[in-house]
Amino acid sequence: MSGIxxxxxxxxxxGGSEEEGDDSDExxxxxFTEEYPEYLSSSSSDEGExxxxxxxxxxxxxxxxxxxxxxxxxxxxALHDPxxxxxxxxxxxxxxxxxxxxxxxxTTNQYYMAKTGIQIKPVCSLLDIKKFFGIHAIVGxxxxxxxKMIWSEKYRxxxxxxxxxxxxxxxxxxxxxxxxxxxxNQTEEQxxxxxxxxxxxxxxxxxxxxxxxRDAGNYxxxxxxxxxxxxxx
Length: 233
Hints:
Elements: H1 7-16, H2 29-35, H3 37-45, H4 58-61, H5 88-95, H6 98-116, H7 126-139, H8 158-161, H9 166-175, H10 186-192, H11 199-211
Helix pairs in contact: 2-3, 6-7
């Protein structure tokens, strides 16, 4: 039958299937392999799998180039003397002021009294609040599956266990407040400000941030996601 393909017909079809195309989009493999010899070795070792064109990284197709990083020296006016280096607690106290922690101690006592009808014993003091925040700072650095393991006999962690008992810590954690919730209409406050229970903390941190110096003239852009144009407004 005339519809049956013999060997000669198949060879003729294969020979005529090669079409000349536009080589403008092709990559110069000679220059590429000189710059990236590792791709040449990997492609030659995989016989019958991928051609050299298949091993070209996407960075080359996108027009990216591998260049050494040349940093620029900082201007002299950008280098500032940090002054006296303070302790971590001194920096913390600039945001969580003594006045704020004293208010927390007072309102925690008021909340416990309103909830239970008796006074918390011993009365929550400024030192208790400082220890409470210090324990949370340490807990953020060490990892226990459960907080109660810190006070257990087998896994006891003395820097925390010696500073405050387990019952005292969880008592403060359950009753800690920074506003007197009994002196206001909670429904009305919730309507005006959903963060009214922690508003003193927000105000203290914001006030400290507003006091930080802002020296214009030198900026650093980190993880730029969109085109950035520096100029004056």
